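Fold sample X.
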Amino acid sequence: MTGSGGPYFQALDYVSNRMDKVNGFLSPLDAGLLMAIDLAQKGAEIKGDLAEIGVLHGRSAFLLSCLARDDERVQAVDIFDLYYPNPPYNHPDAFIGNALSLGIGLERFNLVKADTTKDASRVTESLGRKSQRLFHVDGDHRLMHILADSKIAIDTTSPEGVIVFDDVFSYLMPEVTEGILKTFAGRTDFVPFALSPNKAYFCPPEHKPRYAAYVIECLPNNLDTEVRRLLDHWVLTFSALKPVVLRYFDKAGTVDDTMLHRHILGRPVDFPLPP
């Protein structure tokens, strides 16, 4: 995408003015978390593509495209098999139509049509091993799909990257909970560092203090942030019923990097494991 303003102008404009025009479930809180994570990665010169399994109509994929650098692409993976009016109507015509109506450039996307339970190796090859800096998983919520999607995400996310899972603790989606617990119990390469009401965020343990510092510093203080325990790791929990206004980001999409980095460098984030 192109446009006036600072580097985050398009992302802020999309979240504030266009995101609600797209069917989907990405919340302003999770949009803020993704932007803070992106800022942490760019501050550390972490590069790579951004990926999503479960594109639907593009609500979260469009935000990822706003965050991608000019030489990065959004790998959009979906089975893309349901035509209107069959719910959830995930045919690519819906995604492409939304992108065109919202002025979002399709050149940033690589659409990968695949059933990840049958075509995992092809999807992994298409994305590239250890090549994604940010991976959002929101595909089919049945157990076999969660296990397949988790493996693809782990295999293709870089050693400095972040993996995000949707509906991990929804009482309506218990197989997601089961799949995530089966996948990450005892793992040491990716560990949880943040939870929102809808999503769980994982990263390599050596990068956890940095990502935690950015999300704490960038998100406002009224989110009922607490430190909890998950899979024998501490995690930050966030909740928000009000619109999220990110700190250090102005309306033009410019970030006060100097002040932000000064605060973060003077405040390493690590917590004792809650009992």
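Fold sample Y, listed below.
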Amino acid sequence: MILTKYSTDNNSSLRYSFALMALMLLLSQLSHAQVYKTTTSEGQVVYTDNINTAYQYNKNSKNISVLDKLSTQSQVSSTTNQSTTTSNNLNNQVNNAASTAADSRLPDSLGDSLTGRLSTQSISASQQGDYVIKIVSPEAGQTLRRGSQPIEINVALTTSLKTGDRIVYQLNNQTLATIKDTSYTIATTTLDPNPYTITARVENVLGEVIAQDTRTINLISNNVLYQKKRKAIAEAQKKQANQPWYKKIL
């Protein structure tokens, strides 16, 4: 909507009064809208609620004024306060998060409470007699061929392992594994042909041996494998000897 006021003295007071009345009606209907006042190059005063229209009449923004400054200031103030509140809330959240991340320690009272609970619920160490362990396989005195037959150890327990207890597997008093499984396999590829002593024992949470069983086995050379290798070498040598002389040179 556009209202125009002429600055010439020829305009009657009635026309000017009508323009002012129309302006008042406009302001009452657009109480929340901004009304812009500008002056054209011909001296006409123009009132409009469209900023683009105001710029069309006067390209100089300094000559364009806003009539409802109070409403505008109120809106700007409300928006500013809302933005400030949102910013403060966000800053508080960031500060709280940073404070929580920086202080990762438990309060002393809570730490003491947890320590007390752990003390009253501490794990009791198993004692000798709580378990009986037996090596089921390999059999005592069993002979295995080096490289082709691994040492497959299987043990039996009278009761399941408690928390903190474990089975230790040893070969000639050298610990190979500390696990909870009742089976363990040892490769024989790198072992020399000799007698070996297998030991399976149960240790409690304190590392004390509370049950144990041993078994002796024999590891021999794999003559079958050795014979296969010798036969393969002999066949290769024979094949090489039967080749023509020019292939032997190559």
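Sample Y note: Residues 69-80, 97-106, 114-121 have pLDDT under 50 and may be disordered.
Also: The longest strand covers residues 209-220.
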